[in-house]
Design goal:
Blueprint: H1 3-6, E1 9-10, E2 16-17, H2 23-32, H3 34-40, H4 52-61, H5 67-81
Antiparallel strand pairs: 1-2
């Protein structure tokens, strides 16, 4: 399950409901508060960790995000910026 799947909204009964996710809005949320958004996706980020590069390093070193998945995210980001 990817970050986009993990961040779906919850219905009244707590079941996940798929809804259209705006990548630009998600990027803004990620830039505004990366730790909170990643925690919402089910990843463990130590309290007080705010620096994006530090968070990335933690996720890679802890094995929560495989290197291949990180590379995919970088490729998606580069396409989004074009």
């Amino acid at each position: 399950m990817g970050i986009f799947d993990s961040l779906g909204s919850k219905g009244q009964n707590g079941a996940s409901q798929q809804q259209q996710i705006d990548p630009r809005q998600m990027m803004q949320q990620l830039q505004a508060n990366p730790a909170a958004m990643l925690k919402q996706a089910g990843l463990t980020i130590p309290g007080g960790m705010k620096d994006p590069q530090q968070i990335i390093n933690h996720l890679l070193q802890s094995g929560q995000v495989p290197q291949a998945r990180y590379q995919q995210a970088l490729q998606m980001l580069s396409r989004f910026r074009r």
